[in-house]
Design goal:
It is built from nine helices and 23 strands. The chain has 421 residues and is an alpha/beta fold.
Length: 421
């Protein structure tokens, strides 16, 4: 299991019973001040808390009840804000390092706590078992996920231990079970090869801490450290569910000489940032075609949007997922954390991706994937402008790679000279 997000990590935000010194180096603490909560609201909360503690059919201890109330506080905001216990918080950080025990699937939690598959990660147990973007996991080991406040936790376990997931899939009349064996997953986020002399293919499956350096190493290997310049590159971001925002910035920087890559904007000063490319395009302006589909989400949309807006690449495929928000992970003093949506991100042209996605320059048809869009999630952060209502499509197989290669050889891929802003 992996949760889908562009991720920022912040220092610990201490929550104490008694006033504590403010650490001005912590951007969250430094920029937030205690708000005045109406006394009537405090009394109402305490009344509900006490009523549940005293009258619920089974005893509930204070810590469990307080965590439940905190989860409720966050879950009603948007689909990506949540309370993480220490185990879940540690797992989230481990995910970004590309090594963890699980089945290897990116998911989004639905309001009923079922898990919608955004994408299985290449080469993982979930991928080999045939899980597809758009599948909905409704039960794990026979236990329904309805009412489970932490459905992701049920997918974790020891390496070598099997887990049975119950799947609902568009086009299938009945749910079906899939048995998957958990394993230690070491994600190789970047892979590549020459399609033919002068034309290369690079696949980025997810954005983790080593993706930027790995992409640079791959491009140097494909060009012989610049001794064999490429005539074109097919960059495959299909069903890439995202990951670290910083990794997407590094990856885009490898193909840009200058200019804005992405801008984030939120309510606090630390949420407002602009990320720019440094000189040094490793392909020296050779044309690029970026393959995307409805499983292309989050940080992957950041990279596709940056290359598109700078005229550095053509985008080919179907409209992307439309997750244009940034989540900040704030550790708490008890080892738990909160994951909070703190900003939207914007492409260099100023376009928000949130609930809209990126429209491709060259449209390819694929398999319809209903409800696999950010705009279909209950409580999603609103779009700026009109949200697109069309269903997404999954573009699978090697045929799309062939189409991209044809565009490169025909000279119809976007040249660096053309910009959209």
């Amino acid at each position: 299991m992996r949760a889908l997000l562009p991720l920022l990590l912040l220092p610990t935000l201490a929550l104490a019973q008694e006033p504590a010194p403010v650490d001005a180096s912590d951007p969250v603490v430094a920029e937030t001040t205690p708000a005045e909560v109406p006394l009537a609201e405090i009394r109402r909360y305490v009344s509900v808390f006490n009523a549940v503690k005293d009258a619920y059919v089974e005893p509930v201890d204070d810590e469990t009840l307080m965590k439940a109330s905190l989860r409720g506080l966050l879950s009603d905001l948007d689909p990506h804000s949540t309370y993480l216990d220490k185990e879940a918080a540690d797992a989230l950080v481990a995910d970004t390092e590309g090594e963890y025990v699980g089945i290897g699937v990116e998911t989004e939690r639905r309001p009923d706590h079922a898990l919608r598959v955004v994408a299985p990660i290449d080469g993982t147990p979930a991928y080999r078992a045939g899980l597809r973007a758009g599948d909905v996991i409704t039960a794990i080991d026979g236990e329904p996920l309805v009412g489970n406040p932490d459905p992701h936790h049920a997918l974790r376990g020891e390496a070598g231990a099997p887990v049975t997931v119950t799947i609902e899939r568009t086009g299938e009349a009945e749910p079906f079970d899939v048995v998957i064996v958990r394993e230690l997953i070491r994600v190789t986020s970047v892979d590549g090869r020459l399609l033919e002399p002068g034309y290369a293919y690079v696949r980025i499956s997810t954005f983790q801490s080593d993706t930027g350096p790995a992409l640079r190493r791959q491009l140097r290997a494909l060009t012989g450290d610049g001794k064999a310049p490429l005539d074109g590159l097919v960059l495959d971001l299909r069903s890439n569910p995202g990951g670290l925002l910083s990794a997407a910035v590094e990856a885009a920087d490898a193909l840009l000489d200058d200019g804005l890559i992405v801008r984030t904007q939120g309510r606090l000063a630390h949420s407002n940032a602009s990320f720019h490319a440094k000189p040094g395009d490793l392909l020296a302006g050779a044309p690029v075609v970026v393959l995307v589909d409805t499983g292309t989400a989050s940080a992957a949309e950041v990279m596709a949007g940056a290359l598109r807006d700078h005229g550095r690449a053509s985008v080919m495929g179907s409209r992307t997922y439309g997750k244009g928000s940034v989540q900040t992970v704030v550790p708490l003093d008890n080892g738990d954390s909160i994951k909070l949506t703190t900003a939207r991100y914007y492409t260099p042209s100023g376009e928000s991706i949130q609930a809209r996605g990126i429209r491709p320059d060259i449209v390819l048809r694929g398999a319809a994937a209903r409800s696999l869009r950010e705009s279909e999630l209950a409580g999603h952060l609103r779009a700026e402008g009109d949200a697109e209502a069309d269903d997404g499509e999954l573009i699978e197989g090697d045929a799309a790679i062939g189409r991209a290669l044809e565009a490169l050889k025909a000279g119809t891929a976007t040249a660096k000279a053309r910009r959209r802003f």
